[in-house]
Structures are given as C-alpha cells and as structure tokens.
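Internal QA ticket QA-208
Title: Verify multi-chain structure generation after dependency bump
Assignee: T.L.

Test input:
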Amino acid sequence: MTGIGTPDLAGEPAGGRRRFDIRGLSPRSYVIVSFLMILVIWEVAARTLGTSRATGATIIPDITTTLSAFIAYSNYWVGGLGAGDTRMGADETWWGAVLGLGYNLGITLLRLAGGLAVGVVLGVGIGFVISWSGLLRSLLSFPAHFLRMMPLLALVPLFAMWFSNKNVGSIFFVAIAVFVLMFAATLNAVRNAPPYQVQFARSLGASAAFVYFRVVFPSILPELRSGILLSLGFSWNATLASEFLGQRYGLGAIVMIAQEFGRMDLIMLSALICIVGASLSFALADRLFSWLVRWAE
Amino acid sequence: MDRPMEGLRPPSQRTSRRMYPEDQLTGSAELQPGAREGYAIELRSVSKTFRLETGEQVIAVDGVSLAIRPGELVCVLGPSGQGKSTLLNLIAGFIKPSEGEVLVGGRPVTGPGPDRGVVFQRDTLFSWRRVEANIAFGLEARGVAAAERRKTVERYLKLIDLERFAKAWPKQLSGGMRRRVAIATVFANKPDVLLMDEPFVGLDYVRRAALHKVMLDLWQDSGCTIFFVTHDIDEALALADRVFVVSHGRIAFEATVDLDRPRSTEALVSADANDLRLKIMQSIGADPLTEGEA
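Actual output:
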C-alpha cells in the first residue's frame, strides 16, 4: 500500500531506455548460461593451471583431452561382442570403449540399485514394525540417530576384508548406509503420523493392525521422500567408495586404476559420467516417487 | 497441550453461576429409573479431569448427566473450551471418564467403535484413497464383501451428489465437497450414533446451509441419533430437536426446539425461534457489549 508521504520506490521511471536485462531470461536459458560458464572456467583453468610446475604432470586436463579419453574404457572390457580384451593384446577401439563403459557402469548401477533396494526395504520395514511399539520407537530413536553419524566411508576397508571383491560386499555396504538413513527417517515419520486420522479410522471400526498398515503406513510415505532422495545420493557415494577398495570392475575401480597410471583425463571423464548418471537417477527417482504419492497434498 | 483443555479454568477459579437448579437440568425428568434402557446415549454423573503439564488439575466435564433418545438430533452449544468436545470424545470412547458412566445403546463405552461414527472438525479424509475408497473405508475395515461395498458407495455418492468425483483424490475437492465425503464415509458405515464435532466450521453461509440439507437428508434416511457440537446458535436452531448449552463443564441450559421441519429462513427468525435464541444467549452468559454497565 502506498500511503501519503511514502513515494513508490519500486516504480520504474516512464520512458526509460530499454536495455538487456538478465532477469528477463527463461529458466532454461539460465541452465544453458551456467553450463557454458562452467565449460569456459574449466578450459581456462586447464590452460592456465592445468600443468604442475614442479613435475610437468597434468593436474586439470582440458575439455578435448578429457572427451578423447573415452577410448581408454576399452581397456576395461572383458572381451567379446566384436571387441577384444586389450590385456590380451587387442587394440583400443571406440566400440570396445562403449562396451567397457557399459559393462562397468552396469556393474556399478547394479550394486547401487541392489544396495539401495535392500537398504530401503529393510530400513522402512524394520523401522515401521518396530514403531508399532511406542516404547521401542523411543528407545531406538537415539541409537538410530547416533548410527547416522557413523563415518561409514571409513569402514570400506573392513568390508573389503570381510567380502574381498565380491559384489555382495558392495551391496551390503550400500545397504547399510541406506538402512541407517531410512530406519531413522521411518521412526521419525511414524512419530509424526496425524493422530486424528487414526482416531477417525478407529471410529469407523478399523482394528489396530488395519489402522497401522492401511492408515499409518500410507500416511508416512510423503514424509519418506526426502529420506529416499538423500539415500540415493548417498548410495552413489557408497557404491563408488566400495569400488575404490577391493573391486576389479565398476566405475569406482576404473577411477582407482586410472589414478595409478596418472590418467587425469580418464578420472575427469568418469567423474562427469557419475554426475550425469547421478542426476538422471535422481530425476527418475523423483518422478517415480511423485507418481507413488501423487495423491499427496 | 491437548486441545480439550483450551480455555478451561482451574477448579479454584471456576464460578458456579448456574441458571437453573440442579434437578431441572438435562431433562432429568427423563432419567427416572426404569426408563433408561431405551436411550441411544446416556451419561450418568460423568466427570473428566485433565492434568496440565504444570501439574494443575482442570475439570473439563463436571458431573454431567444427560439422556438422548434414539433418532434424536441434539446440538451441544457453548463457547470454545467449555467441555463440548470433551463430552463428544467421552461418548466416542477416545477418552475415559474420571468419574461416572457413559452408555451408548445401553452398553458402557470402553473405546471407539463403529456403532459411533465421528465427523471431526479437522479434515480427516484419507488422502491416499480416492473418494469412493474413502467412503468404503469403514466397510472395508469391517470386512464387508466387495459387491455390497460397491453398492453402498454408489448410493452414498448419489446422496451427496458427488458421483462425478468418485475417482478423484481428496486433494482435488473443495472444502465443502471434502466435508460431504467425510459425512458420507461415516453414514455409509451405518452407525447407531453419529458424533459431529463442529464439522462445518470455516464454511460460508450458503455452503453450510447446503451441507445442513445433505446432513439432515442422510439423518432422516438413516434414522440414527446425532450428537452435534457447535458454537453457532443459528446452526443449532436450524438442526436440532433439542439443544444443550455447556458452560464450565456443566449443562447450563436445555431446551426442545419446537420448529417444524424443513425449517425455512422465516421459521428461523420467527418469534418462537428468537425467544429461544435469547434464552440460549443468556445461558451462555455472553453479553460483552453491555458488561459492566448493569
């Protein structure tokens, strides 16, 4: 409201000169602009700071070097489907690189999906069953939150010792990371379940079990959304971490091997692929979850 | 803090201002021994005390006795925090009386049950169920067969005029439509007694009048007993067979509403209605504009 004596400061002077205004751009153009900015910064950084003055080694590879490192993925192909195993003397080929990347990325994704699924199902399932008893829920809330503080990445060597390089080690590791998160999230969500809906259901003749599984459970789903998305991000970290130590295949294993050979370009490219993969999986999970709770207000 | 305690005064500060002597309260003429079996709802010297977090005791309901006949529509009036909702929660079985006995259909109340449907002031629809599945909730919970469920749901969708919204999610409905669904959900469960806790608060006059009609139609169709809590005197006059005024946890006034149904706007502003309106207002004790001038 503009009262007497309060000039309208927000008003634009009439007839002002039109000039380019960045605020007029669409959200999509912001994305493009920021993406281009990152590319420019990257390239400038690579050319100015990219080489170590002491050793002459590449620290930041430029964009073209990074992209052309793709062919090196053929070194991580096990051979077959028209592309040989480079460790047996076959040449690096683009087709081999596609197969090599597909194979290792596939393994990483399987470990991630397996660990995530096991962790979510067990975390939500056990958290929900335990929450049946208010006493147990209160008793376990503190240890659950305490466990969330556990520096899980520090335990990777332990898992490597327990499971050597078996897939189950990676899956178990991711599952534990996710379990801890989802367990705490579920305890919290059940505590916040609206009591009046429970009363309504009881007054309609629903048994305690019916209320718990058919009213309380669906009502906590929207609140688990952030927990699940957080778990997804965390399972990318956990999967790659478990592959750094004690795995022969997978994107994380490639990064470790590339580091040993000083292939900064391959590390950079693998990191980019992880970013793209994680973003896509995040968008997919968000969509899926939105559909699952499409009724939520 | 729990809602029933809102605005209550500790016993020490409670004024014992009463309009009528004890024996004239609550239709106690109907409480003769031997006549009790026939009541839909009966409260026998019911008291409910809450303990505040401060350790202070608060009496929300103070020795209330009342009896409601089957098929009767009773409105319980009074300002907020005077014990109306506590009375309803006692009958619903959500809370237990500190003293006295609550009987529904002649049986003592031990907990919530499908014989007593409750429509809350809050929106209680199950948002993850479509409209038709909401109406079917009670039937499903009690194990009614799918075919019969479908028939009942169809009937009630028609009665509340929401057939087109059978497949809608609750979030797609307006406030008035949501109340209609909540009421249909409770009626579809065929309770003997319906407890309504200010179910139409926050709706404009026209919507509220439309919902009154829906509710009265369903009531006459089902023949159930309704215990309707409101703070709106006009609403009580439009709906009730009998009104109770609750003040400081006691029944301060009780009267039969002798107006023909359906009640037209003219009937609701007639001399008889206004006469009763005045008595109710006086019993509530609210005359803030002239307070201190007397």
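Spot checks passed. Strands of chain B lie at 41-51, 57-68, 73-77, 99-104, 107-108, 116-119, 193-197, 225-229, 242-247, 250-256.
Status: verified.
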